[in-house]
Amino acid sequence: MIELAGVEKIYKRGAEEVHALRGIDLVISVAEFVSIVGPSGAGKTSLMHILGCLDLPTRGSVKIGPMRAEHMTEKELVGTRRKKIGFVFQQFYLIPGLSVFDNVRLPAVFSRRPAQKGEIESLLEMVGLQNRTHHLPGQLSGGEMQRVAIARALVNTPEILLADEPTGNLDTENSEKIFGLLKSLHLRGYTVVMVTHNQELAGRADRVVTLKDGRIVKS
Ligand SMILES: Nc1ncnc2c1ncn2[C@@H]1O[C@H](COP(=O)(O)OP(=O)(O)O)[C@@H](O)[C@H]1O
Ligand SMILES: [Mg+2]
Fold first, then answer.
1. How far does the centroid of ligand 1 lie from the alpha carbon of residue 114, in Å?
2. pTM of structure
3. What digits encode the pLDDT tens for the residues 150-163?
4. How far does CA 13 lie from the centroid of its chain?
5. How far is Cα 185 from Cα 179, in angstroms, rounded to an integer?
6. Is residue 205 predicted with pLDDT exceeding 90?
7. Spatial strand order in the sheet of 85-89
């Protein structure tokens, strides 16, 4: 489904070059649950951005289904991101002034797709927030906020869910619950890629990819 070959990512910081990824070969298959681990600065977030078409590699190829990301126009990349990929981040990034319902609906609005009320409600039910529909993010716990973010990531029916340290801001109990939710989405057929610092959670995915200094050292 997503195939990276020889992917390198070099950031330019003034005159300095930062080699964040140094030759990544990685295949993520349909319906897989993959975790990505590695020390801070290893290149995990850079890899997630490339998997999700948020960024292009400096070198190498990225195949999303039959399409090559490096051959897509900006418009095609935006379309791929919106339709095929759902993102979840450590910081949730909910809009404080919008209700849970409206936060979840937002990506559909951006895609100019009229989302039915029932669609949003069933997503909220799937993440266990059917009783929080009209709350504001500030009225929720961290674990609940991450559930909203997960529902929002699913609203445009993506093929793959990318979660970058989704439990990084949560306590053990909420981390466990969010992991359980990602696992249940995987069992429903979603492809899930999760970055985590939590070795115990990582080990419960189908496959653990270990990054170090921009390289895969174990897969
Ligand atoms: N936008 C950027 N500009 C310059 N350097 C960056 C940028 N993003 C990440 N880096 C650098 O790339 C390396 C890998 O970062 P990152 O992918 O965020 O790693 P991780 O998520 O594993 O902590 C780090 O050295 C980081 O400082
Ligand atoms: Mg990171």
1. 37
2. 0.95
3. 999 999 999 999 99
4. 26
5. 10
6. yes
7. 85-89, 160-164, 191-195, 33-37, 207-212, 215-218
Q: For a pocket test of ligand 1, which of 18, 22, 89 has the largest count of ligand atoms closer than 8 A to its C-beta? A: 18
Q: Kindly report the protein residue whose alpha carbon is nearest to atom 5 of ligand 1.
A: 11
User: Which atom of ligand 1 approaches the CA of 46 most closely?
Assistant: 17
H-assigned helices in the chain: 44-51, 74-84, 100-110, 117-126, 142-154, 172-187, 199-202
Which residue's alpha carbon is at the smallest distance from atom 11 of ligand 1? 20
Taking every pair of C-alpha atoms in the chain, what is the biggest distance, in angstroms?
Answer: 52
- Among residues 184, 112, 195, 181, the alpha carbon closest in space to that of 150 is found at 181
Alpha carbons 75 and 148: distance in angstroms, whole number: 27
Closest ligand to C-alpha of residue 9 is 1
- Delimit the domains of the chain by residue range: 32-57+78-218
Regarding the domain with residue range 32-57+78-218, which homologous superfamily does it belong to in the CATH classification? P-loop containing nucleotide triphosphate hydrolases (3.40.50.300)
Ligand 1 interacting residues, C-beta cut-off 6 A? 11, 13, 18, 20, 38, 40-46
